[in-house]
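Same chain as my last thread, 625 residues:
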Amino acid sequence: MAKRDFSEELKKLPASPGVYIMRDSQDSIIYVGKAVNLHNRVRSYFRKIVGRGPQIDRMVSQIERFEYIVTDSELEALILENNLIKEHRPKYNTMLKDDKTYPYIKVTVGEAFPRIFVARRMLKDKARYFGPYTSAQSVRSTIELLNRMYGLRDCRRVLPRDTGKERPCLNYHMERCCGPCSGEVSEEAYRKRVDMALSFLGGNYSPVLKDLQSRMEKAAEALEFERAASYRDLLQSVQQVAQKQKMSENIGENRDVLGIALEPENPDADGVIQTFFIRDGRLIGREHFYMTHVGGRRPEDILSEFIAQFYAGTPFIPREIMLPCKIADAALLEQWLTSKKGSRVTLSVPVKGRKEKLVELAQENASMILMKDRERLKREEGRTIGAVKEIAELLGLQKADRMEAYDISDISGFANVGSMVVYVKGKPKRSDYRKFRIRSVAGPNDYACMKEVLERRFRHGLRQQADEETGSFSSFPDVLLMDGGRGQVNIALQVLEELGLDIPVCGMVKDDNHRTRGLYYQNREIPIDRKGEGFKLITRIQDEAHRFAIEYHRSLRSKAQVASRLDEIPGVGPARKKALMGHFSSIDEIARADTEELAKVPGISPAQAEEIYRFFHAEKTAEQG
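reply #2:
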């Protein structure tokens, strides 16, 4: 049940359609829902109902207050609910994980000399659109194929206005474009090429296959083997595109087919929605999506949530959406989809024939993806949680869920830096990674550097805990991993003892080839199975700490080099240095630039550009001399 009594607020709820918003003690939105009758729907959450699922009970127990918005209709409530879920992504709403935009093939038939290119949005213009497609790579390959086959332009010149103003591009000279910009091709002749491309996109492949076969044979007979090979490659590309479309012949029109798979025994697992995209009767692609927070939810309710969220974000809505089961909001969703599309959209549950087999196939695909995910998650669990348990058992610890590793990087004592990487349940938690620029150590002294890093880390953490702050330092590790043996471990134990902290410290010992060979813990070296997941996790952590420290050190060296050279130029202060480095990608690029290029930098006058140029020019002359 809820934390407090809402009886007075519940009495004031109107018996109207609208949207209700649940908030927790931090005033964060944890759930958004719609209702035909707000009074009945919201009150239902605060009754003692058995069997509504642990997730809903958990959500209700966290409600600190609720609010509602009255709408004129249930359709308005649906639209508002969608917008609020997308904006706030509440913790307990069933959410579509994927937020992709799918590519279209756009043919600018409204232009005198049309082009074919990729479009991410379907606009209300004079162009023709094909798709959406699930693979951007296949879209680009198809466009490249069409441009090569029919010699279509891919430039942005405005034709016929710009005809003859510039030389034809490289594609023309490579015989990949028929050159409408040169005036050699009439609008009528070019339009015939475009019409053939449109026929191809519509699924009429036979004329293209026959034409390419004929061209290949003629080129071979004329001993033009390179040209024949080119036609052969094109022929194979067209055959591959045609082969992909064979699955759903005779289905007709534009349809999406949905399947769903859940894992009832694991309420925390995501649900999978499989979608087949059928356009003009041909399967152009398929995609699967994950829905979060599905525990205890019925398949029909999850499908409703998916349809509302997915089709709110896609520009193309098919005429029919085929489902594996009936859904309660079907009429409302049909009304909403119809208003978005501008023509009738239906939700159907096929019960026989080829349509039913397509839905069954979508269901099977969803189940296969869920099964693969289960196996993948099991393997992932072995690499992470299983590896953590293995390390904890090896060290005799109750748990090692949070592990922190440290490393020092320097070159002969220059710009000493330290790194802190954090792994939680075997996975890197990059938001808690931290870099340390060493303040108290001037020369190469790894022990002194490590002592400073650990003191700063844990003093900061103790302050955060005393002030009841939540930050990356406020959580202390279950075990400290030091990049080294006895010496590094003793430094860490000394710091922890001085601060009154009791945290296990373990050294990651390397062999003569700089590979991890074992763990140093409680004054002894513990051998570790090199084939085990625990050893692999230790190695990953050690490599990550090393990488993180080196990257930070490299960035400091780079900044120091830039600063030392630019600081020598008269009149170049911090603001102009920043402007130069923002305009050019490197110090070498600044050195290569002439006075005109330098003067284009905001804040650099022609006189200053001349001074910068002279500085680097004189420097180069001195180097050469």
